[in-house]
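Quick one, tokens below:
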């Protein structure tokens, strides 16, 4: 893992009152920065359901059900800054004794993390650069906070 990564955890979900777009908030282990990961209502709602323990089997994602059925083990989710400046995400997993990586949408990676208990790591550059750019817009006083908790 090295010094370039820091574990992050979901600390809340907000809805931007201007656009109606949800975002999942991640906090670093030092509780010094927040990263906002944009999501769509369906996946963000599934994350909230998982965190609140109200998930039903039919609401589990196809990828999660596939992984469970075929013995795939999610080992971690890595968030970094993509080439376009957006947040990028890679899923690391173990299948039949082999390690694999797959690019996934960041919000989908977070849902798989919640469903499987896999840790989420953020590139420290994303924490340093991304937190200051995204968090103030999402954390403005007018935002609707729909979930806030610490999962450590």
């Amino acid at each position: 893992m090295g010094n370039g990564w820091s574990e992050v955890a979901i600390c809340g979900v907000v809805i931007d009152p201007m656009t109606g777009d949800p975002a999942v908030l991640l906090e670093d282990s030092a509780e010094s920065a927040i990263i906002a990961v944009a999501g769509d209502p369906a996946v963000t709602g599934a994350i909230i359901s998982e965190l609140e323990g109200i998930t039903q089997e039919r609401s589990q994602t196809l990828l999660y059900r596939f992984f469970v059925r075929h013995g795939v083990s999610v080992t971690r989710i890595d968030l970094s800054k993509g080439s376009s400046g957006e947040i990028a995400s890679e899923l690391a997993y173990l299948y039949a004794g082999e390690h694999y990586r797959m690019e996934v949408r960041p919000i989908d990676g977070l849902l798989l993390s919640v469903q499987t208990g896999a840790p989420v790591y953020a590139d420290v550059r994303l924490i340093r650069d991304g937190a200051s750019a995204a968090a103030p817009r999402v954390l403005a006083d007018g935002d609707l906070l729909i979930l806030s908790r610490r999962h450590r």
